[in-house]
């Protein structure tokens, strides 16, 4: 008897799970089509970091070795910086206003009454923006190598691990902004307020390797400062410092927990 009763329930549960999976896949496709039609997001995430690298690399002094950077050139040091810049753009400038706009217009609330769970939208956005940041990173590495003869990362696995943690951390930071902002304008304002300190810690204005020791130690406990050091170590052929990877992992866990705690669907 119990087997006969449980069989329909199991079938119904399987059907519900299948429907949710199909709905999530449909949301991902729809969100990807929307993202493709946003030229501003595509430019700032996927094109601007590489354009910045080309501009900086075109300065003759940036192509000369610098003793203060350990004998590498400034253009070599700026490749990891432009890699990080793409995920800053994705996590802080592109994703929060979009998700907050969905909440503000009641889209997430209406989705809660359908097989599509609002979490599918958040997951799709994080996946799309994370993938865009990774593509931009590969583009920066390729242009650096082909145009300015910047060596590819000598510790490829360590570089990939550090980059993955950096992307997860950047998206988690963007999720926190999306969680605490109740309106699109607020998301833009908060994202911009966090954006510039993150750019500084990533080394946009001054590579972390060239910072005074006291300042570098402070910067290295920030998410992007630790990421910059980890990527720089891997590019030079060393395994990223465990302290830097630990800082990235800790920030990712803390920010993800904060986003989950504070996020509201309506």
Automatic annotation (TrEMBL):
Keywords: Antibiotic resistance, Cell membrane, Membrane, Transmembrane, Transmembrane helix, Transport. Its main location: membrane. The chain crosses the membrane at residues 41-62, 77-99, 120-144, 156-180, 187-208, 242-263. PROSITE patterns: ABC_TM2. Residues 40-266 form the ABC transmembrane type-2 domain. InterPro entries: ABC-2_transporter, ABC2_TM, ABC2_TM_bact-type, ABC_2_transport. It is a multi-pass membrane protein. It is found in: Cell membrane; Membrane. Belongs to the ABC-2 integral membrane protein family. This is Transport permease protein.
């Amino acid at each position: 008897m119990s087997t006969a009763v449980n069989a329909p329930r199991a079938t119904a549960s399987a059907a519900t799970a299948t429907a949710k999976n199909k709905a999530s896949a449909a949301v991902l496709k729809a969100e990807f089509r929307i993202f493709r039609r946003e030229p501003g997001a595509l430019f700032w995430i996927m094109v601007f970091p590489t354009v910045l690298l080309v501009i900086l690399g075109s300065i003759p002094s940036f192509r000369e070795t610098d003793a203060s950077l350990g004998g590498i050139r400034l253009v070599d040091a700026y490749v990891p910086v432009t890699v990080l810049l793409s995920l800053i753009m994705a996590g802080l400038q592109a994703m929060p206003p979009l998700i907050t706009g969905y909440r503000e217009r009641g889209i997430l609330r209406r989705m809660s009454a359908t097989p599509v769970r609002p979490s599918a939208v958040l997951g799709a956005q994080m996946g799309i923006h994370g993938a865009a940041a990774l593509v931009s990173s590969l583009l920066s590495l390729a242009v650096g190598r082909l145009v300015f003869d910047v060596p590819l990362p000598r510790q490829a696995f360590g570089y990939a691990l550090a980059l993955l943690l950096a992307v997860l951390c950047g998206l988690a930071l963007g999720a926190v902004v999306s969680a605490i902002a109740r309106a699109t304008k607020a998301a833009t304002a908060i994202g911009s307020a966090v954006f510039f300190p993150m750019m500084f810690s990533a080394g946009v204005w001054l590579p972390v390797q060239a910072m005074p020791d006291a300042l570098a130690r402070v910067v290295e406990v920030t998410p992007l400062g630790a990421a910059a050091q980890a990527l720089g170590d891997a590019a030079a052929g060393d395994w990223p410092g465990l302290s830097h990877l630990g800082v990235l992992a800790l920030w990712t866990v803390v920010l993800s927990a904060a986003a989950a705690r504070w996020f509201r669907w309506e």
